[in-house]
Amino acid sequence: QVQLVESGGGSVQAGGALRLSCRASGYTYSRYCMGWFRQAPGKEREGVALINNDWRTTYAESVKGRFTISRDNGENTLYLQMNSLKPEDTARYYCAARRAYCYSLIAVDFNSWGQGTQVTVSS
Questions:
Q1: DSSP per residue over 21-52, as a string?
Q2: Among candidates 35, 22, 20, which has minimal Cα distance to 100?
Q3: CA-to-CA distance for 76 and 72, rounded, in angstroms?
Q4: Which of 16, 59, 116, 117 could form a disulfide with 9 if both were Cys (CB 3.0 to 4.6 A apart)?
Q5: Radius of gyration for the alpha carbons in the chain, expressed in angstroms and rounded
Q6: Which helix (H) or strand (E) holds 91?
Q7: Residue from 80, 25, 81, 34 nearest 56 by CA
Q8: Whole-angstrom distance between the N-terminal and C-terminal Cα of the chain?
Q9: pLDDT tens over the chain, length 123 residues
């Protein structure tokens, strides 16, 4: 059974940085595509970034140049380094796993989800 546990959220001022982590268990982590999504109150869940098992990455336009996704297959952990945070980045951030190669940041393509971690950016 796939289990994903996020951590690292919090409250920061605009311009600050946070690093989110997602610890995975219950499956062969290195074979999966992994992604980060976020959802703000009253809004649809949106893709932030993904990383495939060949290390290829995809980013949402809104976070390009500010966020970096990475994975440590030895530690079964996914990361999201978030720099130059903006108030519009405020959302609950979710880690997700897909049992196949990822070609796009579409939430319905992902099979397993964590519970999320809250990120709040104040102006």
A1: EEEEESS-GGGSEEEEEEE-TTS--EEEEEE-
A2: 35
A3: 6
A4: 117
A5: 13
A6: strand 91-98
A7: 34
A8: 40
A9: 889 999 999 999 999 999 999 999 988 877 889 999 999 999 999 999 999 999 999 999 999 999 999 999 999 999 999 999 999 999 999 999 999 999 999 999 999 999 999 999 999
